[in-house]
Design a protein that fits this description.
By secondary structure, the chain is of the alpha+beta class. The protein folds into 2 domains: about 110 residues, Immunoglobulin-like, CATH 2.60.40; about 260 residues, 3-Layer(aba) Sandwich (Aminopeptidase), CATH 3.40.630. The protein has 8 helices and 17 strands. It has a 7-stranded mixed β-sheet with strand order 11-12-14-13-15-17-16, with helices on both faces. Strands 1-4-10-6-7 form a 5-stranded antiparallel β-sheet, with no helix packed on it.
């Protein structure tokens, strides 16, 4: 048996391979040595063998409570990902599984690689009415791309994957962009007539390629850099915020994944100064209610605690953008586990359901656009 992670988004260290298909493993830290939780590795030569993989430093992960109720993702072809029962006890995450292929893949969530990201950009640029441009370079020198779609006066920004391990955000983007660019979809046509959408599908390609959970190549958590981004530490945020300043922002949606909560939910900017006395609560509720109607996989009962007035963390995208542009803004969170309201024992929360949730957002965006113009 051989275990490897030397590929795009891979992350695991082999401590020892023992007899009987057993192996002890460790998750490698992000740059900056502050975060770790994402893993992605391949097992060769164990087809049909009962194997036990023990991630012995799981208890030291950024969110150890996330392992409760978690089930690992596995695949033979990296196209279809299913779930495997997983145990967490005494700081060790244990995966017991019999590989079906001569190569078997295991991951924290179904990966969405840099090559898949480039394929998505390539497909989008071939569609009518799409502008693809380069906002700047990442820490490692990779291109940070933006798609511009639509001809309406409103300026809607949609960004994803600030945290590189949250690959469900990229799957969400797949569904969102496919429907947005569908000329036969009446909702898409109506939205593009009312708004120009600026889409940054992948904010942190360096971190994703390196197999990080939350940080870029400089060890920066991008969603804590929005108050004062710099080209040296957080160019991804610096260039995106600079482009926002040039275009203006009427709404911003920042797409993420949550390690602990088994729900899809929105987190707003209630704690920014002046929020409750502005039009923002009404506009945010219009978007959230329409999104919940469009796709019941989104719910508004469970989520993060609402920040008290004036207590918002202004280093975070949603709060910073809402305050800077006096506009509605939301963070969308999807689960690494499953949707507890509508569980899927075979696949858990999955790439397909993430993409469907992305496609459904167009209904809510159109409702919001009509409200802003009305």
């Amino acid at each position: 048996m051989h275990i490897d992670s030397q590929f795009d988004s891979g992350n695991i260290e082999v401590v020892e391979i023992l007899s009987g298909g057993r192996a002890n493993l460790r998750i490698r830290m992000d740059a900056g040595d502050e975060h770790m939780q994402w893993f992605y590795f391949r097992v060769d030569g164990a087809r049909g063998q009962a194997c036990t993989f023990r991630i012995i430093n799981a208890g030291d992960a950024s969110y150890p409570k996330a392992w409760d109720g978690y089930r690992v993702c596995t695949s033979v072809d990296r196209q279809t990902w299913t779930r495997v029962d997983t145990r967490f006890a005494d700081g060790v995450l244990t995966i017991e599984h019999q590989p079906h292929g001569q190569m078997q893949w295991y991951a924290y969530f179904a990966p969405h690689t840099h090559e898949q990201h480039l394929e998505l950009l390539s497909e989008c640029q071939l569609c009518d009415g799409v502008t693809l441009d380069r906002l700047g370079a990442t820490v490692d020198g990779r291109d940070l791309h933006r798609l511009i779609v639509g001809e309406g006066p409103l300026k809607f920004w949609v960004i994803g994957r600030q945290h590189p391990g949250e690959s469900m955000a990229s799957w969400w983007m797949e569904g969102f962009l496919e429907r947005l660019l569908d000329g036969n979809d009446a909702i898409s046509r109506g939205l593009r007539a009312r708004a120009t959408l600026h889409v940054v599908p992948h904010m942190n390609p360096d971190g994703a390629i390196r197999g990080h959970l939350r940080c870029n190549a400089a060890g920066a958590n991008l969603n804590r850099e929005w108050a004062n981004p710099s080209i040296e530490r957080s160019p991804e945020v610096y260039f995106t915020r600079q482009a926002m300043d040039r275009s203006g922002v009427d709404f911003c949606l920042d797409v993420h994944g949550d390690e602990e909560l088994p729900y899809n939910f929105l987190s707003g900017a209630e704690g920014i100064p002046g929020y409750s006395s502005s039009r923002l609560p009404l506009l945010c509720d219009i978007f959230a209610a329409a999104y919940e109607r469009a796709n019941p996989d989104l719910q508004r009962e469970h989520g993060y605690p609402i920040a008290a007035a004036g207590a918002a963390n202004m280093t975070m995208c949603t709060n910073a953008v809402a305050a800077r542009f006096n506009c509605p803004a939301y963070t969308l969170e999807m689960p690494f586990k499953d949707n507890a309201d509508s569980p899927d024992r075979l696949c858990g929360w999955s790439p397909g359901r993430s993409a469907n949730l992305g496609a459904s957002s167009l209904d809510a965006l159109l409702h919001l656009a009509e409200a802003l113009q009305g």
